[in-house]
Design a protein that fits this description.
Oligomer: single chain
Number of helices: 10
Structural class: alpha/beta
Largest sheet: 6 strands, mixed
Number of strands: 14
Distance between the termini: 17 Å
Order of helices and strands: HHEEEEHEHEEEEHEHEHEHEEHH
CATH superfamily of the largest domain: Periplasmic binding protein-like II
CATH topology of the largest domain: D-Maltodextrin-Binding Protein, domain 2
Helix content: 25-40%
CATH architecture of the largest domain: 3-Layer(aba) Sandwich
Shape: globular
CATH class of the largest domain: Alpha Beta
Number of domains: 2
Radius of gyration: 19 Å
C-alpha cells in the first residue's frame, strides 16, 4: 500500500490542530444523542467488514473508532450499500462514510472528502492457473470472458468502461462474489489490489494478478458531511496524525502483511 504522505505546511497545521480540536466531555445522556454516525457498506475487506449483531471490523473501522475517541463521541455504524450511498449519505444523517472508498468526482457531489490516506489501483482476480489469460485489459475485454463486478461502485464503473465486449454480471454485494469465480461461474473480477491481496488469503484457489502494477491509481478517502468545516478539519488532523505516527501502515500490515503491494506467489 503506497501511503500518501501529506505534510509540509498543511500537514503541520493539521497536526497542530489535532491537539486542540477536541470536543469537551459531555453527559451520558447527551452522548447517546451525539453519536458519530459512520455509514459503511461493510462488504469491502480489509477496509470494512460487517459481522453479526451490527458489529464491524477493518482498517477504516479502526480509523473511525479512533476518530470518535478524538471527538469524545460514541460511534454508531450505519449500514449502506454502494449503489445507494449517494442518496443514503444525507438521508441517513451520515457524519462520515468509510469502507475502502475511492476518490471519484461523482461522490464529491454529495459529500466532502478527507485527505487521502493511501493509494490503490484496480487489478484482476481469477482462478489459479488462469493468470496468463486475464492479465491485461485487452485479454479481459473479449466476448467469451465472463466478468463479474459488485453493483454500484467504482468496480462496476471500471468494468463498464474497460470491458464493453465481455460478458458482464453485476453482483448485488461484495461478500459472495468471489465464490462465483471460485466455482467457475465467472472468470475474472477487477477490484482494488489491497482487497485482492486480502481475499486470496480466504480463497486459496484464487490469485490476484500484478497487485504491484495495477491498471490505474487513485486515492482512498473518507466521506465527510458537506459544509461542516469543524468536522472536516478535525478529521483531516486526525488522519494526518495517523499517517505521521505510522499507524495507517501498521493497520495495513496487520490485515494483509508487510509490503502490501508485493505480488503473492
Amino acid at each position: 500500500m503506497r501511503v500518501t504522505r501529506l505534510f509540509g505546511r498543511i500537514g503541520a497545521a493539521l497536526l497542530a490542530g489535532c491537539t486542540v480540536l477536541v470536543a469537551p466531555a459531555i453527559s451520558a445522556e447527551a452522548e447517546a444523542s451525539n453519536a458519530l454516525r459512520v455509514c459503511t457498506p461493510g462488504d469491502y475487506p480489509p477496509y470494512s467488514i460487517a459481522e453479526s449483531a451490527g458489529e464491524y471490523r477493518g482498517i477504516d473501522i479502526d480509523l473511525a473508532r479512533g476518530f470518535a475517541e478524538v471527538l469524545r463521541r460514541p460511534v454508531q455504524f450505519v449500514p449502506v450499500t454502494w449503489a445507494s450511498m449517494k442518496t443514503d449519505f444525507a438521508a441517513l444523517h451520515c457524519d462520515i462514510a468509510v469502507g475502502g472508498i475511492s476518490d471519484s468526482p461523482a461522490r464529491r457531489a454529495f459529500a466532502d472528502f478527507s485527505i487521502t490516506y493511501g493509494t490503490d489501483g484496480k487489478t484482476p482476480i481469477t482462478r489459479r492457473g488462469s493468470e496468463t489469460d486475464y492479465a491485461t485489459i485487452e485479454q479481459i475485454n473479449r466476448p467469451e470472458v465472463r466478468v463479474i463486478a459488485n453493483r454500484g461502485g467504482t468496480n462496476e464503473e471500471f468494468a463498464r468502461k474497460n470491458f464493453p465486449d465481455a460478458q458482464l454480471t453485476l453482483w448485488p454485494e461484495n461478500l459472495t462474489l468471489f465464490d462465483e469465480i471460485d466455482q467457475g461461474r465467472a472468470d475474472v473480477f477487477v477490484t482494488d489490489a489491497v482487497e485482492g491481496r486480502y481475499r486470496v488469503r480466504q480463497h486459496p484457489g484464487l490469485q490476484v494478478l500484478h497487485p504491484d502494477k495495477p491498471f490505474d491509481s487513485f486515492g482512498k478517502i473518507l466521506l465527510v458531511r458537506k459544509d461542516d468545516p469543524f468536522l472536516s478539519t478535525t478529521l483531516n488532523a486526525y488522519l494526518t496524525t495517523q499517517l505521521a505516527t505510522g499507524n495507517v501502515d501498521r493497520l495495513f500490515t496487520q490485515w494483509i502483511g508487510p509490503n502490501p503491494t508485493a505480488p503473492i506467489a
